[in-house]
Design goal:
151 residues, 5 strands, single chain, five-stranded parallel sheet, Ribose 5-phosphate Isomerase B, Chain: A, 7 helices, 43% helix, alpha/beta
């Protein structure tokens, strides 16, 4: 099954102050893998409000400008809650590789949310790699994903 990940080679990324260091590492990692990256910030470790970065990433993915997205904050809860307010977004908090794989296979997640205070940067890179390379299974999962929408 072809996904937007295959068609759109642009990834949206954003973070708050807790995720800034991870975002920097992941942007370089993605570029090395041949991805184009649209960086919505933040651009330093000064305290900021995560919705100011989560909404633009979610908008970019929801409109199809970006094929998928990455959001990073301390726990990943704030960015995930914010992104999931967008009707076309399925943002998944991932703290290990198997969760990242299942978020794609079973939930067709289109934004991975990484908890910077709870995973290492190598683990974050591995999860991103798994997330982007895993296809949605469809089948029995398709009807469940369709039921997620409120409208």
């Amino acid at each position: 099954m072809q996904s937007t990940f295959d068609r759109v080679k642009l990834v949206a990324i954003g973070c708050d102050h807790a995720g800034f260091e991870y975002k920097t590492v992941l942007v370089d990692f993605l570029k090395e893998k041949g991805w184009q990256v649209k960086d919505f910030g933040t651009n330093n470790a000064d305290s900021v409000d995560y919705p100011d970065y989560a909404h633009p990433v979610a908008n970019s993915v929801e409109t199809g400008e970006s094929g998928w997205g990455i959001l990073i904050c301390g726990s990943a809860n704030g960015v995930a809650i914010t992104a999931n307010k967008h009707q076309g977004i399925r943002a998944a908090i991932c703290w290990q590789s198997e969760v990242a794989r299942l978020a794609r296979e079973h939930n067709n997640a289109n934004i991975i949310c990484i908890p910077a205070r709870f995973v290492s940067t190598p683990a974050a890179e591995e999860m991103v790699n798994i997330f982007v390379s895993t296809a949605f299974e469809g089948g029995r999962h398709e009807k469940r994903v369709v039921k997620m929408a409120c409208s």
